[in-house]
Amino acid sequence: MPAAPRAAALPGVGAEAPLVVSVCRESGEFGRLAEEWGGLWRRCAGVTGFQGHGWLHSWWLAYGGRRDRLRVVLVRRAGVLVGAAPLMRTYRPWPVVVALGGGITDYTDVLVAADGVAGTTPDAVARALAEGIRAVARGAVVDLREVRPGAAAFAVYDAWRGPKRRAAGSVCLELPGLPMEELIARVGSSRGQRIRANLRKLDDAGVTVREAAAHEAPDAVAGLLRLHRAQWQGRGVTPEHLRPRFALHLTRAAGAMVASGEAAVAEFHVGGRVVAANLTVLSPALAGGYLYGADPALRGTKVDVMTLLMRHGVGHAAGAGRPVLSLLRGAEPHKFHWRPEHVANERLLLASRPLGPLLHTRYALALARTRLAGTAAARLPALRACRARLNDLLSRRPARS
Fold it and tell me: Are 159 and 130 in contact (CB under 8 A)?
């Protein structure tokens, strides 16, 4: 597996140069930021592939609506990009500023150069981003969801002058970036024996893996989505995964992300036939399995799909020096066999003082929704089956892009 990308060092340009804040409002301008954005991404600590330009720009093209307004806050010193906040202004139903990525993105964040490039400090960049966000959010509440622990967005939160609140987000499952044998040792002898047996069965079945090159990634993702649809047929597929806009976004983003080292698309073969495929988001901080598809015929074979995916993920984590192997969101039972840690994202709410009451209302609604979801999970397990049936019905409706 390729090594995780390292931070790119840039020469200092003099600490006396001021930080300059600007706002990107046009899709074309955002598209032209790819190279500059990539340079910043590689100098940030803790970012994930979801903060890469390939993911964000593709998402905006696929999901930006008629009422949405692109608002990407940029911070430069002496012409060097040292900070960015990928945001948009929308109406749900009142004005709100949210992070690009929406509900299909497991982690959101801002980008802050961590290497002191151009004579900056991360705290100074975070303060500049906070002021830039305040300007684009005039008359709106800022609602940043799915912020991972340790994210740079918390420095912006700390720098914010005005009402602010933190609420619980989704729980992601994470494993340390250890070699396979050490991960197996964590789960106990009985489960460990089953995992080792499954690994031997993969070898006996002749499973091979091939990662797509950047120009092959769109076709590989199209195949992944076909397998994903077949795999979940009649089993409660997430409706969004079947919509044309999701396919358009994922196939377009994959090519750019593979080219920049922010993702890998793997195809698994048995007897020369593709039987499974997987998209992994990559960064120096983690490798995360985002979406996979598997031929339903594998259920009747000795190939254990989760073991297959985990072996590949371990290669991208431990094999490339990444400290975390993330299973991302979703509490599927097969993930718990590996005894992952439960790591909670957070939701950051920010506003100017006149909008304090609106922020507190939104915060109260967020708390109520979290409590309701927890009660439903604890007391009404039948809701999972009802949701699966509803998702199946929704997936059969004509999709709108």
Answer: yes
Please give the Cα distance from 142 to 134 (Å, whole number): 9
HSE of 23, CA atoms in CB hemisphere, 13 A = 15
Under 8 Å between Cβ of 131 and 324: no
- Residues of the chain whose pLDDT is less than 70? 1-16, 373-401
Cα separation, 35 vs 397, whole angstroms: 39
Show the DSSP H helices in 207-318 as ranges: 217-232, 244-260, 305-317
Q: Which helix (H) or strand (E) holds 268?
A: strand 263-270
* Angle of helix 305-317 versus helix 189-204 axis, rounded to 10: 90
CA distance linking residue 355 with residue 353, whole number of Å: 5
β-sheet bridge partners, residue 289 = 280
The residue type of 249 is H
**pLDDT of 8-48, one tens digit each?**
333 334 456 899 999 999 999 999 999 999 999 999 999 99
